[in-house]
Amino acid sequence: MKTKSLAIALVLAGLWSCNEEPAAKPAPPPPPPQPKEFTPPADGLLQPERAARWRQTDSLVRILDSVFQDSMRSHPDRIAAIQAQQDAAREIAARKANLLGWKEYRWILEEAPKNPANAAAFQAAGLSMATTESKAGAKPAEAKADPKKGDSRKGR
Fold first, then answer.
1. Which end of the chain is least crowded, N or C, by CB within 10 Å?
2. DSSP-assigned beta bridge partners for residue 144
3. Residue 46 in contact with residue 124, Cβ under 8 Å?
4. What sign does the dihedral 60-61-62-63 (CA atoms) show?
5. Is residue 19 very low, low, confident or very high in pLDDT (cuts 50, 70, 90)?
6. What is the DSSP-derived secondary structure letter of residue 97?
7. In the 8-state DSSP scheme, what is residue 143?
8. CA dihedral 60, 62, 65, 66 (to 10 degrees)
9. φ, ψ for residue 60, nearest 5 deg
10. Other Cβ atoms within 10 Å of 107 Cβ, number
């Protein structure tokens, strides 16, 4: 008799558990926020911490550019695809170094040196700022981490 009671209890428990609603699936996680876009500062002034971050990014970009140049030499038939990958890698490198992407990197490289008030920010980051007055007929001023190395990123 005890065995029958136990068997009936197990059957009823099984039926009761089958009637339960399945657990609701958790809501999917929200999509990641869109990355913040860079807009040049209205006053054109560069903050020293941004210059220091630019310096970190520059070393990453130089390494990336070297690798991608080797790839382009090895695969001249895939240059367009490799350049697209290079642009994406530059964007990621700039964001990993806490800049607001490749646009901010380029602004610091090309536009920030044109403002003489940014000299202190460049110096605080250990960078020198060439000016157009220092060399007659020179191109617009650029910040260089190492003047011995050429800039292979021009035009991008």
1. N
2. 128
3. no
4. positive
5. low
6. T
7. E
8. -110
9. -65, -45
10. 20
Task: State the residue for tokens 């992407």.
Answer: 101
Q: Which residues pair with 129 in a beta bridge?
A: 143
Amino acid in the structure at residue 115: N
Residues ≥6 apart with Cβ < 8 Å to 97? 53, 54, 56, 57, 60
Give φ, ψ of 154 to 5 degrees. -60, 145
Cα–Cα distances (Å) from 144 to 26, 66, 94, 109, 149, in that order, read: 51, 17, 17, 8, 9
Q: Residue 126 to residues 24, 51, 64: CA-CA distances in angstroms?
A: 56, 9, 22
Instruction: Give the amino acid at 16.
Output: W
Residue in this structure with the two tokens 């657990």, named with its chain if needed: 23
pTM greater than 0.70 (yes/no) = no
pLDDT tens across 56-94, in order?
A: 999 999 999 999 999 999 999 999 999 999 999 999 999
Q: Please write the tens of the pLDDT for every residue from 124-154.
A: 888 887 655 544 444 444 444 444 444 445 4
Question: How many Å from the N-terminal Cα to the C-terminal Cα in the chain?
Answer: 86
Structure tokens at 92: 């990621």
Under 8 Å CB-to-CB from 91, ≥6 apart: which residues?
101, 102
